[in-house]
Every structure is written in structure tokens, then in C-alpha cells.
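Researcher: Structure prediction, please.
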Amino acid sequence: MKNLLIKIHLTLIFLLISLKTVYADVQRIAVVVNDEIISEYDINERIKLITFSSKINKDKKLREKVLNLLIDEKIKIQELDKLGLIVTDEEISKGIIIIENQNKMKKGELRKKLNEKRISAEGLYDQIKGELAWQKIISRKIIPQVVVSESELEEALKIETNSVKLKSSQLNLSQIIFDKNKSINEKQFFNELNNINTCNDFEALGKNLNAKSSINLGYINIQDTPEKIRNELINIKIGDKTNLISTNNGNQVFMICDIKNIDTKKQRNKIREQIARKKIFNLSKKYLDEIKRESIIDIRK
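Model: Predicted structure follows.
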């Protein structure tokens, strides 16, 4: 009985110490952002959330990053209020479901896992709210400003590609690969190759010569091929063959079986979207920097 009382007494002492530590962190102010407080507890809980969902190690740099993240989050939510916009509980719940789906979790499993790790779900809600708040602010303040002119589009298309074919075509390729250790009579090989007019015959030739590989690769985006191979493919037509190309995989030769033109309108729209996303990113960063300059941020030591 005496031992049991001692154990109970020690447990109570431990609980009181733990509660005192948590309460101290809640009370300890880390930073004040426009009269709103971020406590040491908020920072510690967010660090726990981040390290729970990734393999990041806890250190001073992480604390500094989390502090800056929380400041930005607080400012974004305050700006949302100024604009008369809101993030609903339903939207936050949908955000949690998206995270669960991305991580192949069942509905409600994320909250359960956080509870098991003694991590407050409040930090997760705040994080999602901050992200949704910023999306709404961008939709209201930034996106209406973004226009991609035809001259910008044409300039970007010139920079993106050195050849119309490079971005507007897919090539149906057959490939023969010879082992690097295999000696090849290139003159004889290309004499035989010159008499071949179909990809089936091309592949059969490779097999007859005991090539390491002799197959049809299907349709390939030319820009996805290594530069060394791409340079050989750019200027040849259907039925043409490349020179013998030395690569890490072996000595390769390709034949173009077909060229399929990609919808150039889709390609232009893709580039237009890329330009727009870049503009949105830059304007959003500038907007956040302006809000921060106008804010009163008091970091406590």
C-alpha cells in the first residue's frame, strides 16, 4: 500500500511538472504580429507537426523557419479578414481529407495519428487555414492583374525551343543498341542499313546482328530524349536513320518510323500558363512583402 501511494505521488508530481512546462510555453510570447501573439507553444507544436510528416531534424534553423512560417501565416489570415473574406470550417475539413487521400489514409485517420503522437490538431488547422487564406487573397488581388500578351508568349516560345519540331512533334522510334564491347563493322552495317525502308526490317537487322536490344520505343517526345540523341533526331525525316551514337547504354542507332504533330494550340496554352504562374508567384511574393513591411512584428528574445 505504501509503495502504491509513493507511485501515485510521483505520478502526480510528474504531471504537475509537465503541465507547468506546457503552461509556461503557452504563456511565453515568441512574437507579436499586429497585436496577435505567437507563443513558444505554437512554435513547438508546429515543429512537432512538421517533423511528424517529414524527416526534417529539429535544430535552431528549423525553429527560425517555423517562426517565419507562423508570422507569414498570421499575416495572411489577418489580410484575409481585412478583405472581408473567410475560410470556413468545411473548407478546412476538405483540406484535411485531401491530405489524407494524398497519404492513402482513411477519413479521420490523420487526427487519430496526431493524437497518438500528442500533437495538437490546432496547428494543422491553422496551417491549412493559412494556405486557403492565401489562395483566396491571390484570387482576389493577384490573378485579376495577370495578363500574358502575345509578344510575351512569342518571346517565351523562342526561348523555350530552338526548333518548332522540338516542341510540336512526337517521334515513333525504333532503336538498335550494340554492346560497347562488341566490335562493329560500321561501313558494312550502314551499307545494310541503307537498304532498309521499314522499321520492322530495321529491328530484324538488329536481331540478326545479335544486338543487345532491337525494339520499337513507340511515340517519344523528342525533348525528353538526352541531348546527344536529340541533336541527331532533330533534323531527320520519316524513314531516316541516325549515325551510330555512343552512350552509357552502348552504341545506338535510331530510325524514325513516324512523326505525330502535337496540337500547337495546346502547346501555346501550356507556355501561356507557365508564364502566368510565374507572374502570379512573383506578384504574390511582392504583395506578401508589402503586407509584412506595413505590419508591426515584435520578435521577443
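Model: The radius of gyration is 31 Å.
Researcher: Thanks, that helps.
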